[in-house]
Amino acid sequence: MKPKPQKNQGKSNKKPARAGQKQKPNFKQKQQKSDSKPNKPEIRNMIRKQKAAAAQAEREKIKAEKEARIKAYKKQRLEKTKIISKRTQRGQPLMKDRMQLLLKQIEEMKGRQ
């Protein structure tokens, strides 16, 4: 007697592919050529880095200008304080230096106009 062949003998349990059905995408990374041009995300990242570098340079420039103005103001204020704080031997303020300071301020105001 011959044994009867079974229905699924030698076949897998997968369903047969239909003609209209799409194939699953292959998510494996393709090897990129090193000499090829950069793709869109790389271009966007490069542009983003360039803009960030430009913004950083602008911030540093503004910060340096601000520090220079503060330094100049502090120097001017120190000179003015030294002139005003001068005293005679008896503790009276020196009017000569105060008058020179007022004259300097008046000349600066005339120069601005």
Quick overview:
Residues 1-11 have a biased composition (Polar residues). By secondary structure, this protein is mainly α.
Task: Give an account of the 3D structure.
- The chain is an all-alpha fold.
- The chain has a domain at 41-111.
- 56% of the residues lie in helices and 0% in strands.
- The protein has two helices and no strands.
- It has helices spanning 40-84, 95-112.
- It is rod-shaped, with a radius of gyration of 42 Å.
- The mean pLDDT is 84.
Mean of all residue-level pLDDT scores: 84
Q: Biggest sheet, open or closed, and with what strands and sense?
A: none
- Label the structural class: mainly alpha
Low-confidence stretches: none
CA-based gyration radius: 42 Å
Please tally the β strands and state the result: 0
Choose one word for the global shape. Answer: rod-shaped
Order of helices and strands: HH
Strand content: under 5%
* DSSP helix fraction: 55-70%
Our count of helices gives: 2
Distance between the termini: 125 Å
